Amino acid sequence: MKKVFFAVVPVYLLFINAYTQQPRVRKNIPDLSQALTISLDSSESRYIRFTVTNQIWIRFNQSNPGTLIADIPKPYTFDIGIRRLRLQMIGQVSERFFVYFQFGINNFNNLSPRKLGDFFHDAVVEFTPWKRHITLGAGLTGWTGYSRYSSPAVASTMMYDAPIFEQGTNDANDQFLRKLSVYMKGKFGKMDYRIILSNPFLASTSPIFDPNISQYANFTSKGSSLQVGGYFQYQFLEEESNQLPYTVGTYHGKKNVLNVGAGFQYQPDAMWSLANGSDTVFHDMKIFAGDLFYDAPLGDKKDMALSIYLAYTNYNFGPGYLREVGIMNPGQAVDPALASLNGTGNAYPMIGTGHTVFAQAGWMMPPHWFKSKVFTMMPYAGVQTSLWERLIDPMVTVDSGINFLFEGHRYKISLNYQNRPIFDATSFQQIQRNSSVILHLQIAI
User: Fold this and answer.
1) Secondary structure percentages of the chain, helix, strand, coil, to 5
2) Which class is domain 2-25+50-444?
3) What pLDDT digit, counting tens, does each position of 225-235 carry?
C-alpha cells in the first residue's frame, strides 16, 4: 500500500503546476443556480429550483482477509463506481407551502445488479404556520435526529465523504437514512431545532436483515414501533439555513459558524437477542450524541478557511450489537477458512453498541497562492475512535487527504487515504490494519 500511496503523490504536483500557470485574469463564472431556477412570480419569492450532483469513485483497496470475487481470491481490488448521483427539486410554491423531492442512485459498481438501484430519497411537503419559528412537514425525508451529520449535505462534505457512522440505522430500518416521518423544525433566537416522529421500515424487508437470533442484539423482524428523535443546536455566530435537513460540511470561508448541538433517537423494542440460550429478549434502541462545528474564514484577506468538527456518540442497540459496513463494497464474498470479523472487501465494524469519538479538521489554502481566483486546495484529516462493547480493542479508522477545489464544491476532486483495522472473528482483537486509496470526482450544480 505504501507504493500505491506514494505513486499517487505526483497527482498533487500535476494540479499545482497546472494552476500556477494560469493567468491572473478572472473568468466570468455563470450563476448556474439561477439557470436552474424557475420563478413563479415577479418577486422571485416563489420558485422551483433543480440541482444535480454526481460523485464518482476510482479506488484501490487492500482487501479484508479471504475476500472473493466470482470465487477467486482477491487480496487487492480496483474498482470504479458511482458513489452518488442525485437530482433534486426544491419548490417554494407559496409563502407557507414548500415541496421537495430527491431522486438518485447510491453505491453502483461492477458488482451491483444492473438496471436497478434508482429510487426516491426524499418526497416531502411542508407547511409553515409561524414563519421562522415553526414549520411542519411530512413524507419520506432525511429530517432525523441526534447529530449534525445524521443528515449530511453530501455535495459539501469537507472530506471525501461524510462520517457515515452517524447514520446508525442506515438501511437497517430506514432507506439510506430516510424514513416516513412527520417533523417540526424552526428557530428561536440562536437555537435551531428539529423534532421527528417516524414510522420506520420493517427491518425484515432490508437487504442486510439477519433472521438469526443470537446472544448479540440485532434488529428484530417483529419491530413496528414508532421512532422519535431530535437535534438541537445553538448557533453562536452566523445562522445556517434549515430549509433542507442536510447540514453543510464546510463553507470554505463564506460563513463564520460556531455551533454546539445535541440530539437523540429512541425506538422501543427495536432490537432482539437470546438470553439463556433460548429466551427471546427485546431491547430499546437508544442513541444520544453531542457535537461541535466550527467553520470560519482566516487571514487578513479572509481568503483562507478552517473547518473543525468534533462529536461524541453513545449507541445502545442492545448487548453486543455490531455492524460491519463496507461502503460500495468491492468484495463479493469471503472464504470462511480465512474470514475475519470484518467480512469481505473493505468492511469494518463501523457501528455498534458503545461509545464513539470522531474528529475531523481541514484547512483551505488561499487561492492567490496558486495565482487563481477560483482554484485552491484543502488538506484534511479525520479519525473515528470507537469502544464497541463486543470488541476487545478500540476500533480506530483514520482518513487523510486533500481536496482540489475548482469553484468550491461545484467542481471538486478529492484524494483520500484510509487506514482501517481488521479484527479476529473469534477473539475480537485487532489482528492487522489494511488501507485504501480513493479518488473522488464531483460535479454539483
Assistant:
1) 10, 55, 40
2) mainly beta
3) 999 999 999 99
